[in-house]
Amino acid sequence: MTRPSDAPLKPAAAPVTDSHLAAPHSLFGEILDWMLAPILFLWPLSIVVTNHVASQIADLPYDGQLATRVAALVRHVEVHGAPADGGLPRSLYDMLRADEHDTIYFQVAGPRGELLAGDSDLPAVADQQPAATNTLRYRDAAFNGEEVRIAYQFLPAVAGRSALLVQVAETRIKRKQIASRVITGVLLPQFAIIPLAVILVWLGLTRGLAPLNKLQLRIRQRRPDDLSPIGMRNAPDEVRPVIAALNDMMARLADNLEAQQRFIDAAAHQLKTPLTGLKTQVELALRETDQNHLRGYLQRIAASVDRAAHLTSQLLQLARAEASHDKPRAMEPVDLEALTREVAANCVPRALARQIDFGFEAAGSAMIIFGVPLLLREMIDNLIDNAIKYTPAGGRVTVRLRTSPAWLLEVEDTGIGIAEADRLRVFERFYRALGTDVDGSGLGLAIVREIADLHRARIEVAANPPGCGTLIRLIFDNTKSINRDGPLP
User: Fold this and answer.
1) Which of 39, 133, 263, 452 has a C-alpha 20 to 30 A away from that of 4?
2) Residue 429: is it exposed, middle or buried by C-beta count within 10 angstroms (0-12/13-18/19+)?
3) How many domains does the chain have?
């Protein structure tokens, strides 16, 4: 008889998917971009800075000449007074106007801007009453459609003379010529240096990435079955972690291939036995004429087919569990309690057929974990099927879920039990303890271990507390589980 449970079923959560695709890119191109981008950005900036510095350099000597002309006018005014009729001595006038390239303008103005001598249209000073006088100052302006540089000085009022403004202006032809020569001398070499820098950067990157190309060539030249470690001799420090990771991957791949080969060899041997027996039974049945004996042969053939089908199914389950280790993203939230209840319900007919008291004890709270539902179903089914198979008629099998002190899935039976010496070996493939007459392939608990490892669950095997049978316990890490509101941190 079965022992029902009143615990409610909980719906499975929606699957979680991840479809991030990485766009291909060139490491060489990315490094080249990051090295050339600053150069191409700084070059126009350097042109602007060079032009500004060249203008300042050109102003220094010619500002001194302007200051000399202003000083000559100031001395004349201080000695002879302000020109009353707008005239100046010929020698002073020639000195002020003398220049081979630029045009010189000068002006002596009164306190209200009235012209006393020089050019009347020279731009006026914005501040006609400066806080400090007798100080030479410079400014840039436009005069007669040309850019000019102006030096000016305010003279304070003294006895018999009012305040005056003295200023001398000069066009910027010589200054522009010098600035142009400075800019040309600085920038022309850059036109040759920058392409040369690009070529040197290209060559440097090509040489720097050469070890990666050599590594690629060494890997391509290997035989498909060569999984030996790649040598690190003469490898740069930056490439060594990549080689170490490749060696580790190849070592794991070699272990997997070796385990796969052992599995194939063992599976071929295990499949050969029922197929050989099946062939023998068929040959005997073909020669049999008695209907009763023929029926017995057919029954044995059907049993052999069932064993072969069961073995094939378990082999497929084991292969599927191994393949899932490489696909952790296929996991999704699963209600462990609802899934276990469903599998246990499907096992009830098998238990009733063997006259076994089958029970299910629910946890009474949510047990939602990340897992692969199909594999978890196969793991639970194998645990229960193994318990039913090795429990005699009249025995008991109990499936139990608990959430304290950890999340536990237990399958307890009153069967023949497992000797302490065999409790570790029963999870090996095709291993069967001596002294049992139950048909089996020796794969059921091996499948359980593979799927439990995939879900990071620990397995414990102990004797049934009453002293008869076996208790197999799966312990899940509930810190990797999720609650009703979403993933836990």
Assistant:
1) 452
2) buried
3) 3
